[in-house]
Amino acid sequence: MSYWRTDIKPLLDAETGTLFKQAPIRVTLAFPNRYSVGMASLGYQVIYRMFNQEEGVACERAFLPDDVDAFERTGQALPTVESGRDAGDCELFALSVSFELDLTNIIRMLDVAGMRPLRGERSDTDPVVMIGGPFTSSNPYPLTPFADVIIIGDGEQIVPVVSEALRESSTREEFYDLVDGMPGVFLPARHVHEPTWATAPKELLPAYSQIVTPHSELSNMFLVEAQRGCPRPCTFCLARTMYGPNRNNQAQELLDTIPDWVEKVGLVGAALSDFPHTKFVGRTLTDRGIKLGVSSIRADTVDAELAEILKAGGLRTFTVASDAPSERLRRWLKKGITTEDLLKTAHISRDLGFKGIKVYMMIGLGPENDDDITELIEFTRELAKINRVALGISPFVPKRHTPHFADPFGGVQTIEKRLKRIQKELRTTAELRNVSAKWAWVESVIARGGPEVGMAAYSIYRNESIGAWKKALDEVGWRDEFEINTPAISLPPGQYEAREVSAHAEGLAV
Predict the structure, then answer these.
(1) Whose CB has fewer CB within 10 Å in the chain, the N or C terminal residue?
(2) pLDDT digit string, tens, across residues 88-107
(3) Whole-prediction pTM value?
(4) Which domains does the chain have, with CATH numbers?
(5) How far is the C-alpha of 281 from the C-alpha of 225, rounded, in Å?
(6) Which tens digits make up the pLDDT trace of 166-205?
(7) Residue 478: Cβ-neighbour burial (10 angstroms; 0-12, 13-18, 19+)
(8) Could you give the dihedral angle defined by the CA atoms of residues 381, 382, 387 and 391, in that order, rounded to the nearest 10 degrees?
(9) Buried (b) or exposed (e) across 291-325, using 16+ Cβ within 10 A?
């Protein structure tokens, strides 16, 4: 029995909105992670729809198998979702990548699709490999050993350009000639520095889902983008840098994208509580009996009316971001959230009957010390007297295109010590979930590294581990002080200046 029929076909049968098309130019749109993760990506779904709207182009999806080792033992070719054709049997193999830690998955996906991962080992008869998504906007340089084309910025502006180039070219070099110099197009075979980013014009917005499925991480949820960009000045975040100037969509524009049969809607935006129509759209949807999910509600803008709408939409736990363990560090990050804002939100959540409040934050910030952790612990105890508290703690990972690019990583040992203290002192007070300090270190290396980091990933993509990463990075010359405090920065080529950035785009709260 084929993998497509036993593993993919049941997923396909559960979808609503799938596009089936045949055309001379075949595009495989791959997501280098599980199906459930990829189908929760709004950008991935938008690009899928746009390629299928292009004349002469048919786009089908592919995902990394849940158990890729077991899949490889079957000897089968990786199939596309829509028809089961070989994913590598196409003119364009496009990957949408959200996370730095999916770097090894990108390489593995090219491999299981029957393609040579290294760009220099592919020939003119192989598909053009194009990589886009949040990862490329954050740092494209580790991808240069693998990609023929790297897309930086909004994909909506790029799909028509790439589609026309596919229609008009018969060789790889002709394709390069047609896309060379376009905003957002980075050609590693020709370019050294990343280009001007692509910014989608307002008429191509809002972004909205094409497919709804119960097998997404956001099960049966239709996503629609309320805003792109962000007006806030937070220094750690890539929202404004990655997504361009703040562009708010009109309330009716959003409502018009939502089909009548939809039962759950997720509003997406970097700072939804700054979006002027959040309450109107939310109330309109909940009055229709639609469940509501939201991303990025800031504690300084929460009021009882907004909280009531979210509760009517089915939200049971109120989610906000502190983003730093102390008031002093929130000011350092220009977050604009005070202790009073967080306390007010906790009181509103309790008064309206929410089951608890979830607070996201980072530790390992540059000026952080033990007093900041003490403040976090004491403040969490204060919050817990108001409502049940869950803390989501992530080590701070400095990113390119932010003022923190040259800041050192906080150090694995330092972060682990602080996490242990938090866990010990709050184990009976709050629910605690944290990201691994060691894997955050790997993310920090990928987020600021160059092609040598890509080659390190290539050497270990079949047997990835922290130890393998340390050894591979040493072999490519990445200087590391892992056991002491921070890895030294190996600057990639390109522009290193700090750019103004803004608010934190959190995960969708449902």
Answers:
(1) N
(2) 999 999 999 999 999 999 99
(3) 0.91
(4) 3-186 (3.40.50.280), 220-403+412-434+499-509 (3.20.20.70)
(5) 12
(6) 999 999 999 999 999 999 999 999 999 988 888 888 888 8
(7) buried
(8) -50
(9) bbbbbbbbbbbbeeebbbbbbbbebeebbbbbbbb
